[in-house]
Amino acid sequence: MADPHDFARVPLPKQFCNLDRLWHALEARGIDGIVATVPYNVFYLSGFNPIAHKADEPRPYAVLLSRHAPDRPVLVVADYYLASFLGQPTWIEDIRPFRAVMMPLDLPAKRADIDRFIPDSGNGVTWVERARLRYSFSMAASLKQAVTDLGLEHGRIAFDDVGFGLRLGLDDVEVMDGYNPLMFARSVKTPTEIGLLERATRLNEAAIRRTVEAWQPGATWRDLNHAYAMAVTDLGGFVHDPGGMVWGHPRGADATLMLQTGLETDEVTAGTHVMFDCHGTIDMYCWDGGKTWVVGGEPDGKARKFADATAAVGADLLDAMRPGARVSELQARARSVYRKAGAPDPDAAVVFFHGLGLSHMDIEQATADGRPNTDWVLEEGMVVPFHLLYPGGEHERSWLEEVVVIGKDGGRPLFSWGFDPLTG
Fold first, then answer.
1. Strands of the sheet with 156-159, listed across from one edge
2. Which of 157, 290, 294, 300 is surrounded by the most beta carbons within 10 Å?
3. pLDDT tens-place string over residues 203-242
4. CA angle 177, 55, 147 (to 5 degrees)
5. What gap in Å lies between CA 65 and CA 281, rounded to an integer?
6. What is the mean pLDDT of residues 156-166?
7. Alpha carbons 388 and 370: distance in angstroms, whole number
8. 64 has which bridge partners?
9. What pLDDT does residue 5 have?
10. pLDDT in tens, 315-373
11. Is 234 helix (H, G, I), strand (E, B) or coil?
12. Domains, the chain, with CATH or none
C-alpha cells in the first residue's frame, strides 16, 4: 500500500516549461511578447504556486516574456509573495515586487515597506537585493515599466487574460489573445512534467484502491466520495469542491450518461459497476481516470463481454496512439475493435481524448493560421488520456480511462493495473 511518503512534495526544478515551443508559437503568430496572469500559466512559466489566492480575485502576479529578449524574463509579484521564491526557486532572476493589499492605506507608501517581507535568509541574496531596488507602488506601474524595459511598448503582446491586457492601458501596444500560444507550448510535456504526471497518476491509483477497500454494505455514493477524498488527502493530494469522482451512476437498467453533483445519497449495492473517473492535483499537475469496479463480485454475462471488449480496445489504442494520429482516426479504430470483439452496438460506445497536464485540456483551440483544432493530431511527448465507456445498466456498463504518454513507438500507460475491471 502506498503511503504519504511516496508522494512527498519537494521544490521543483527552476525551469520545467517547454520554452522552445512557446517561442515557436509566438513567432508563428507574429507576437512579440506574452504576459501570463492566469495562475496555471504563471506556475508553468515560473514555478510560482501562490497560497491563499482564488481564481476570480485580482491577480497579484504576472510573468512577462519577450521572444526578442528570451534571456530577460520578468516576474511581477505582490510584495507578500516575494519570500516564496526562497523556498521554490525560479529561473526568472528579474523579480519585481509591488506594494499590495497588506500595506496600509492610511500611511504614506515607502520604499522601505518591502523590508517587512524579506526574511533574514534573504538578506544579501543577489536576486532579493535586485527585487528590493525594483519595488514599486502598483502592479500596473511595475508591469508597464517592464514592458518598456523589454522594448515592447510599441509591439504586439499576447495576454492569457485579454481583459487584463486591455485594462492595463498600454496605448501603443496591440493586445492579442495568448491562450493558444501557451496551450501549444503546454501540449508537449518536458521530462519534469511527465514525472509530475506519473506521480499524480500513482496517487490516484492508490486512492482508488483505498476507496474500494473502504466500502462496506450500506455505504452510499456520498460515503464513497468521502472515502476517496480522505484517501487523496492522506496521500498528500488535493480534490476540488464538490468532489473528486466525476461520473454519475443511474440505477437499474438506465444507461444515461450523467455526471455526479456531489449530492447523491443512494446506496452503492453489491454488483454495481462503479465507474472511477477521478480528478485531482498534486503540485498543480492533474490526475485523471480510473476504471470499472464491480462491487463485491465480478462481471458476468453481457457485462463480461462488454468488459473484455473494452479491454481489447484499450490494448489496441496503446499501439495506435503514435505521433501523427488524429483523434477521429483513433475513435473510428476503437469502434472497429468493439465491433470485432462482439459488442452489440459499437456506435453507442463513448470514445474520446483530451490533453492532460495543468488542466484537462492542454491543447490549443485554434492553430497559428486560425483554423479550429477540433480534430487534433498527437505529437511525441503529449500526455493524452483515452476514455472508453460502453453504456449499460448498473450491472453491465464498462468504463476504462488510461493516461498515456505518446512515444514514437506507441503509447505508454501510466496506470499500473491493466485494463480488466477491479473486482471484489
1. 94-98, 74-78, 61-66, 33-36, 156-159, 174-177
2. 290
3. 999 999 999 999 999 999 999 999 999 999 999 999 999 9
4. 45
5. 27
6. 97
7. 31
8. 35, 74
9. 87
10. 999 999 999 999 999 999 999 999 999 999 999 999 999 999 999 999 999 999 999 99
11. helix
12. 19-186 (3.40.350.10), 189-423 (3.90.230.10)
Give the pLDDT confidence score for residue 54 in this predicted structure: 86
- Asked if residue 270 has pLDDT above 80, the reply is yes
Q: Determine contact, residues 421/310, Cβ cutoff 8 Å.
A: no
Residue type, 131: A
Q: How far is residue 388's CA from residue 412's CA, in Å, rounded to a whole number?
A: 17
Conformational region of residue 399, where left means phi above 0, alpha means psi within -120 to 50, and beta covers everything else: beta
The Cα–Cα gap between 71 and 92 comes to 9
The residue type found at 101 is V
The number of CA neighbours under 13 Å toward the Cβ of 59 is: 26
Task: List, in order, residues 6 or more apart from 10 with CB less than 8 Å away.
Answer: none
What percent of the chain is modeled with pLDDT above 90?
Answer: 98
Indicate if the pLDDT at residue 56 is higher than 90.
no
The percent helix, strand, coil of the chain (3-state, each to 5) is: 35, 20, 45
The count of other CB atoms within 10 Å of the CB of residue 422 is 17
Query: Cell numbers 512577462 label which residue?
Result: 64
Whether residue 186 contacts residue 205, with contact meaning beta carbons closer than 8 Å, is answered with: no
Give the pLDDT of residue 358: 98
DSSP lists the bridge partners of residue 384 as 404
Flag whether pLDDT at 1 surpasses 80: no
What 3-state DSSP class applies to 344? coil
Q: How does residue 2 score in pLDDT terms, banded at 50, 70 and 90? A: confident
The full DSSP string for 35-96 is EE-SHHHHHHHH----SS--TTSPP-EEEEEETTSTT--EEEEEGGGTTHHHHS--S--EEE
Please state, for a pLDDT cut of 70, what percent of the chain lies above it: 100
Helix residue spans in 121-219 (DSSP H): 126-133, 139-149, 162-168, 179-187, 191-214
Q: Is the sign of the CA dihedral 78, 286, 330, 414 positive or negative?
A: positive
Nearest to 335 by CA among 318, 302, 310: 310
Which residue do the cell numbers 484502491 mark?
Answer: 209
